[in-house]
Amino acid sequence: MSTIRVVWGSATGPTEMAAYDAALSDAGIENYNLVAVSSVIPADVPVEAVGTAPDLGPAGERLTVVEGRARAAGPTSVSAGLGWVESVDGGPGLFYEAVGEVGPDDVERRVREGLDAGADLRDWEFGEPTVRVEEASAESGEYAAAVVAAAYGESEPIV
């Protein structure tokens, strides 16, 4: 596997799905069929926070992700967060996500608590965690969506 890229986006839209699609577009992963995995970073795979994904392959292919996504009808604000911590020796690492109609500070706190809890379950020695939180706000009559995703490598054919 090549690199895991952390991307993020936020948007509003006339429907919940339109807002989510626009947030995915802001992150550069709107043209893929996202397949969610839980939270383990394979050993010796670098994680890079890039904001917007580069071209990861043809439209319609499968893209493996760990995703924090928040969506809600306005008037409201939503926050989505994703954190990661890697082993100090190049071993495996962890992702944790948190979302909600809460502020970014609360989401970041919950992500860090999740990473700490996950690290406590494992006998791996971890470095310092990194957290990215994205926020979106919507007025009455529109929807807000925020997404932070870790895209594993390149897309793959789905059929």
Describe the model.
With 159 residues, the chain is α+β, with helices and mostly antiparallel strands. It has one domain: Pyruvoyl-Dependent Histidine Decarboxylase, Chain B. 18% of the residues lie in helices and 44% in strands. The strands form two sheets. It has a five-stranded mixed sheet. β6 (76-85) and β7 form a beta hairpin. Its cofactor is pyruvate.
Primary descriptors:
four-stranded antiparallel beta sheet; 159 residues; five-stranded mixed beta sheet; 9 strands; Pyruvoyl-Dependent Histidine Decarboxylase, Chain B; alpha+beta; 44% strand
Write the layout of secondary structure elements.
Blueprint: E1 4-13, H1 16-27, E2 33-36, E3 40-41, E4 47-51, E5 62-73, E6 76-85, E7 93-100, H2 104-120, E8 130-138, E9 143-152
Parallel strand pairs: 1-4, 2-5
Antiparallel strand pairs: 1-9, 3-7, 5-9, 6-7, 6-8
